[in-house]
UniProtKB/TrEMBL annotation:
PROSITE patterns: ATPASE_E1_E2, COF_2, HMA_2. Residues 1-58 form the HMA domain. SUPFAM superfamilies: Calcium ATPase, transduction domain A, Calcium ATPase, transmembrane domain M, HAD-like, HMA, heavy metal-associated domain. This is Copper-translocating P-type ATPase. The chain crosses the membrane at residues 83-100, 106-123, 144-162, 174-193, 328-350, 356-379, 673-694, 700-720. It holds the Pfam family Hydrolase. It is a multi-pass membrane protein. The lineage of its organism: Bacteria, Pseudomonadati, Bacteroidota, Bacteroidia, Marinilabiliales. It is found in: Cell membrane; Endomembrane system.
Length: 727
């Protein structure tokens, strides 16, 4: 498919085919999501229906899914790259001869020799596609390119072979090989850049699928361990997960305990403790311990599989934006051809002695002045400059569509962890009791945390490392599941853990420490107690720090009249605390990945243009559903792949910049389209000869070509102005 109108043609044909219930074509990744009645139609019949309109459908089984498509797309891209390079290399000398060396001996023949491969080899696709479109009475950008370059080439070929046809009548036999070749080179270059930008769209799904391991250790009733392929796992199987391994399917722990990194599901940075009867999910990563669990959901029923399916459907459900140029091209081509034909007829009737000469010249001039070069450059040049400017400002933009849409955004959804906050638990504060000997006790605390397997222990360890404290090795060490750790130093016992650990061991909490701990919890900080056998010695606050720039960025967006929402899987208290600190009016806590996507839909149904900003796999469904998806550069590969924009910095101030860049770029595109068409609006009537009746002026085709060349220069120059605008 060469343009958005192609995807519309494919979708229309499929939906009109008997047995197809619904078809949604995704132009971005060249795929179609089809619901069909197996009793009425099979994929082979759909393939035939699509082939009839000049396209093709690749149908694969699940075992080889993606392999054939990737191979074909890679070959197509490689061929396009060769054709673009060839067209550019051959066009340069043609344009040089036409502009600077028109009196070179055999100039026309040299131009003809160089133009032949551009038209019949490098630009062949335009003529083939235009012919297929014409058979179905539709026109697109290919038609525009094929008609203008075809007429220019054929007219030039005639004038090269039979120059005396014109010279005998007192006219010069002009050729327009440079127009035909340059147009093809420009359009191929634009298509190459577009294909390159779209090439990674489907990799997000592949990476999601890659989260599930290929094999798993299954334990038989007699205790025998066997490594089996993931597809052989059945509900009820007992599976073993070792430290560092990915969990293969959804289930419940039956034996053992560990901590599991579930940030890909919840987005929260702190690993979750897993003990007997606790649920585990496919794709999450086990930490230091090992455990056994019973498989409860396998294959397409796991939470990961549902995320994959929802991302696919959200990507596929977006109706491809019909590019303005394609819309105009569908009307522009037949109108210009009609005007050209009408010009010829009028001149033949009223042209007098020079009727045929004037008729042919005027008709050709109309087609030449309607050359789509400026039209083809209007959008891509502005987009290219806009994307380049974005990159300079730490905004990586994946496609033109998102850059065009971003200026309409009036609702922004922010994930909490890793987006508003740093996404990494750190020690926010340590408060010691009045009589505690910090110098003596700190090495003991560090020694215990070094031995602990709890994920928060590493935060404490990092904190003391930065202060160059050395830990003391304990004489005895014990990990207490769900509570913390216990250690002995010189026969005296110490404890590090939660409130429950203190209660179980009847350890007193001094009033001042109790008050400080309560304040920490109110501020959405995780509290860890350090105590001896009698009382608490210190309280440690662990927090996911808010980024320095988050508050200013959110205020900026709200001042622009944009509604800003925070969605998080964290608890209500933490969400409320973070919202207050950054000045947010709207937030939702305890949100699951599917809920985020549903909230995006809810806002869209209210007529809002929604931008989703996130950094985790748990955000990928909502990112795919949103009108504009923005990933934080330090986030997961999945979020970055699904998102249409990526902020290479963690600074949320890049979001208002991205929206302003979109506004500037869209304004430039509109200006470019104006300049591209103003020449046609003024030039086509003059080319047709309307001034001849008043002053005898008939536009020379060469001047017409020069006018169109100037329109291209004005369009490119206007696009380059974007570079100097401030964000």
């Amino acid at each position: 498919m060469s343009c958005a109108s192609c995807s519309l043609s494919v979708e229309t044909i499929l939906n009109a085919t008997d047995g197809v219930i619904d078809a949604k074509v995704n132009f971005a990744n060249a795929s179609v999501l089809v619901k069909w009645d197996e009793q009425v139609i099979q994929p082979s019949a759909m393939k035939a229906a699509i082939q009839a309109v000049g396209y093709d459908l690749i149908v694969e089984d699940k075992e080889t899914a993606g392999e054939t498509v990737e191979e074909i797309q890679r070959k197509e891209y490689d061929q396009l790259k060769k054709h673009t390079l060839g067209a550019v290399l051959f066009s340069i000398p043609i344009v040089a001869i036409a502009m600077f060396l028109p009196d070179l001996p055999y100039a026309k023949w040299i131009e003809l020799a160089l133009t032949l491969p551009v038209v019949f080899i490098f630009g062949k696709r335009f003529y083939v596609n235009a012919w297929k479109q014409m058979k179905h009475r539709v026109a697109n950008m290919d038609t525009l390119v094929a008609v203008s370059t075809g007429i220019a080439f054929l007219f030039s070929l005639f004038n090269t072979l039979y120059p005396e046809f014109w010279t005998s009548k007192g006219f010069e036999a002009h050729v327009y090989y440079e127009a035909a070749a340059a147009i093809i080179a420009f359009i191929l270059l634009g298509k190459l850049l577009e294909d390159r930008a779209k090439s990674n769209t489907s990799s997000a799904i592949k990476k999601l699928m890659g989260l599930q391991p290929k094999t798993v250790v299954r334990i038989a009733e007699d205790g025998t361990e066997t490594t089996v392929p993931i597809k052989d796992v059945a509900i009820g199987d007992i599976l073993l997960v070792k430290p560092g391994e990915k969990i293969p399917v959804d289930g419940k722990v039956t034996f053992g305990n560990s901590f599991v990194d579930e940030s890909m599901i919840s987005g929260e940075p702190i690993p979750v403790e897993k003990t007997e009867n606790k649920e585990v999910f496919a794709g999450t990563i086990n930490q230091k311990g090992s455990f056994r669990f019973r498989a409860e959901k396998v294959g397409g029923e796991t939470l990961l599989a549902h995320i994959i399916k929802m991302v696919q459907e959200a990507q596929g459900s977006k109706a491809p934006v019909q590019k303005l140029v394609d819309k105009i091209a569908g009307i522009f081509v037949p109108v210009v051809m009609g005007i050209s034909l009408l010009t010829f007829i009028v001149w033949m009737i009223f042209g007098g002695d020079q009727a045929f000469t004037h008729a042919l010249l005027a008709a050709i001039t109309v087609l030449v002045i309607a050359c789509p070069c400026a039209l083809g450059l209007a959008t891509p040049t502005a987009i290219m400059v806009g994307i380049g400017k974005g990159a300079e400002n730490n905004i990586l933009i994946k496609d033109a569509e998102s850059l065009e849409t971003a200026h309409k955004v009036n609702a922004v959804i922010l994930d909490k962890t890793g987006t508003i906050t740093e996404g990494k638990p750190v020690v926010a504060d340590i408060i010691w009791s009045e009589n505690a000997n910090q110098e003596q006790l700190t090495p003991l605390l560090l020694g215990m945390e070094k031995q602990s397997e709890h994920p928060l222990a590493s935060s404490v360890e990092e904190y003391f490392k930065s202060k160059e404290v050395k830990g003391t090795q304990s004489d005895q060490f014990e990990s207490i599941t769900g509570q913390g750790v216990k250690a002995a130093f010189a026969e005296e016992h110490y404890f590090v853990g939660n409130h429950r650990l203190l209660e179980e061991n009847k350890i007193a909490i001094p009033k001042d420490i109790q008050a400080k701990a309560g304040k920490m919890q109110e501020d959405a900080q995780t509290v860890i107690f350090f105590a001896n056998a009698e009382k608490v010695l210190a309280v440690i606050a662990i927090a996911d720090q808010i980024k320095e720039t988050s508050k200013a960025a959110i205020a900026h967006l709200q001042n622009e009249g944009i509604d800003v929402y925070m969605l998080t899987g964290d608890n209500e208290q933490t969400a409320e605390s973070v919202s207050k600190q950054v000045g947010l009016k709207h937030f939702k806590a305890g949100i699951l990945p599917g809920d985020k996507a549903d909230f995006v839909k809810e806002l869209q149904q209210q007529g809002k243009t929604v931008a989703m900003v996130g950094d985790g796999i748990n955000d990928s469904q909502a990112l795919a559903q949103a009108d504009i998806s923005i990933a934080m550069g330090k986030g997961s590969d999945i979020a970055i792949d699904v998102a249409k924009m990526t902020l290479t910095t963690s600074d949320l101030n890049s979001i208002p910049k991205a929206l302003k860049l979109s506004k500037q770029t869209v304004a430039t595109v509109k200006q470019n389209l104006f300049w591209a068409f103003i020449y046609n609006v003024i030039g086509i009537p003059i080319a047709a000869g309307v001034l001849y009746a008043f002053n005898g002026f008939l536009l020379n085709p060469m001047i017409a070509a020069a006018a169109m060349a100037f329109s291209s220069v004005s369009v490119v120059s206007n696009s380059l102005r974007l570079k100097w605008k401030s964000l």
